[in-house]
Design brief:
The structure holds two protein chains of two kinds.
Chain A (H helix, E strand, L loop, with lengths): L7 E3 L5 E4 L2 E4 L5 E4 L3 E4 L18 E2 L10
Antiparallel strand pairs in A: 1-2, 2-5, 3-4
Chain B lengths: L15 H10 L17 H12 L16 H21 L6 H8 L2 E2 L5 H7 L3 H15 L4 H4 L7 H14 L9 H11 L15 H15 L4 H28 L4 H32 L4 H27 L15
Helix pairs in contact in B: 1-2, 2-3, 2-10, 5-11, 6-9, 8-12, 9-12, 10-11, 10-13, 11-12, 11-13
Classes of the chains: A mainly beta, B mainly alpha.
Amino acid sequence: MAEDRRRVVVTGEGPILVHGPVDVEMPDGTHVHSDRAVTALCACGRSRRRPFCDTSHRRRVRDDVGKENDP
Amino acid sequence: MTTTPEAPALPMPRGPVSEAVLSALRGDRTVPPAVEGSTPYGEDLQLALYCCYELHYRGFREVDPDREWDPALIALRGDLERVFVDALRNDVPAGADVRGELDALLVEHVDAYGVSHHLRHHGELWQLREYVAHRSLYHLKEADPQSFVIPRLDGSAKTALVTVQHDEYGAGDPERAHAKLFADMMLELDLSPAYGTYLDSAPAEMLAEVNFMSWCGLHRASRAALIGQFATIELTSSPGSDRLVKAMRRLGCGPAAIRFYAEHVEADAVHEQLVRREVIAPLLEAEPDSASDLVFGIRGSTFLGARTEEHMLHHWGRGESSFREVRDVRIP
């Protein structure tokens, strides 16, 4: 049955990637599903679209110079 | 010869070079124009190049599809590409630190101010509509320029890129294809979703962004630059899309308008991971020399994207439209 196991990648820096469609049960008992080939589940707790990642784990910086210089 | 019924009409010329290309497309005997000395990011050169590339996508209504491989047009396209890409290579610093470039793209600058920040906080509905009309040059063929790279990749890079593209094309449901979601948004914003409608009104800055994608996609030698360009979209799209969702809610736009950017917040959070881990990492491992082209793809698309945003913010800041004034500059 090993070949039927879902591939799950714990990125460490952000979300957990789950291969294959997923059905997620939320703390209040509701279900959310994603039919993407790969789904990114929030692991940092900061997403405003939980259970899905919205990249809120990213580092945020304030630039001293105001506007970032483009290359 | 047949042309697709929904192929767009030819645009208006913007100078001697684009006029010569349009005339060649119509099948008229044309003297090849002198390309050297053309302004690399100017209206004339960018439109000429855009029309040459369009033959590889949908073509034009009154143009023989066989012109796609017309040797004279291909030669002219090569001249235009050299002027454009040489200027771009000159304007962005070279580098080979792919990891550093990607890490920089993943940082959210809280005091940055681009078009999505403007639209989220202060933008007006007409400005949002102009933004969407300009972006339609890419999004009505979203993912197509990057699909040209598929046969040029191998192994896990190819597999992961196709996984992302599958999602872009609706994961088996044409109603969910990103280009279709974009067209639905245009309708809801009272814009025409017909392919090519906003070519005449789009500024050279927008054409240059799409031309860079086409250049990367259509040259096997620049496949690593295509991956860099692709990564730039996928890595930077989620936060900007989230701001655009908020802008649309603030401006009272309907659900079909909001759906396009809402989909991109979630989809691109996944795509970012796939592109970094399963496309770029194996490509770099197999071809370490591709690092400098990857960086060129990232910096080139960032540079051109910033120019388009500056164009819009500049005009809006003066209370003006960012649409081009459409006028006939045909050579008598």
